[in-house]
Design goal:
With 102 residues, the protein is mainly beta. Helices cover 4% and strands 38% of the residues. The relative contact order is 0.22.
Length: 102
């Protein structure tokens, strides 16, 4: 994802071994209104696969990751890899049946 006004919603992602489901790569702070909502990410690689990776540090209001379900990922950091993401960008997501801490 590297554009304005992108929505990925109600989809199923089968993430292959060592692969990545979605990568959000804003190349500046001028890429608002990107949403990853209510999707299911499934992998058989519970060691290396990544569900969602956020590169760079989008400003609040420019990205929302909410209502997603991650199945069989190693941990919350492999479900959503978003170091440096500012508060308010990640809502309530689940790893298996457990809510991913914000």
């Amino acid at each position: 994802m590297n554009s304005s006004a992108m929505v990925i919603k109600d989809s199923i992602f089968s993430v292959m071994a060592g692969a990545l489901g979605i990568e959000d790569v804003p190349n500046s702070s001028s890429r608002p209104d990107r949403y990853i909502l209510n999707n299911k990410f499934i992998t058989l690689d519970n060691v290396n696969a990544l569900g969602v990776k956020v590169t760079n540090t989008p400003d609040p209001g420019q990205l929302m990751i909410d209502g997603n379900h991650f199945v069989n990922f190693a941990d919350a950091a492999h479900a959503i890899s978003a170091s440096g993401v500012k508060p308010g960008l990640i809502g309530l997501n689940y790893l298996g049946v457990t809510a991913i801490p914000i």
